[in-house]
Amino acid sequence: MVVLVVVVLAFVAWRGLFRDNDFQPVRPVDYRETVELAQDGDFEPIYPVELPEGWEATSVDLEPGTERTVWALGVLTDEREFLGVQQGGGSRDDLLELWLDEDAESQGEVTVDSAIGDTWEEWTDSSDVAYAAEIDGQEVLVHGSAPDEDVREFLGLLTLEPIR
User: Which InterPro entries match (predicted)?
Assistant: First the structure.
């Protein structure tokens, strides 16, 4: 019995030495497939026409609903900073409360060149920047921990155009 315990402990120790515990990176997703499905279902998600070199879409969420549909897309920049777009899912206050810290402050209205709308309300907290607007009757929040110029670039890539 003692020999069996020693053999098992030796095996566990040996496996521990050769185990690969490296962090597994987030895998990219093809958000365009989900956009196409949503558009086929008569929902118009806001999405980037294309992403800059090195940027990757890493999460996509489409929750069809009877009263409202919720759409979310998460992206990592080439510097591995987060950007996201949230569409629907409640009021502007609901989205801000969900995605920004309690200390978030409005910086007022700003103009950002975008195919979906040029006037946005800018918000900042201790680590994030966000732009909020009502687009086609739904609240939209474009936000992230990426530098402001990346968030604005992302916002400028967004469209409602059919993907087909």
Answer: DUF4245
DSSP state of 126: S
For residue 120, the one-letter residue type is: W
Give per-residue pLDDT as tens, 68-98: 778 999 999 999 999 999 998 788 888 888 8
**b/e for 106-130, b at 16 or more Cβ within 10 A?**
eeeeeebebebbeebbbbbbeebbb
Q: Residue 121 pairs with which residues in a beta bridge?
A: 109, 132
Amino acid occupying residue 83: L
pLDDT digits (tens, 9 = 90+) for 3-24: 554 555 555 565 656 665 555 5
The predicted model scores a pTM of 0.79
| Burial group, residue 60, by CB count within 10 angstroms (0-12, 13-18, 19+) | buried
Place of tokens 């008569």: 42
Q: How many CB atoms lie within 10 A of CB 86?
A: 26
Q: Rounded to an integer, what distance in angstroms lies between the CA atom of residue 64 and that of residue 135?
A: 18
| Cα-based angle 20, 75, 97 (whole degrees, multiple of 5) | 110
CA angle 86, 77, 44 (to 5 degrees): 30
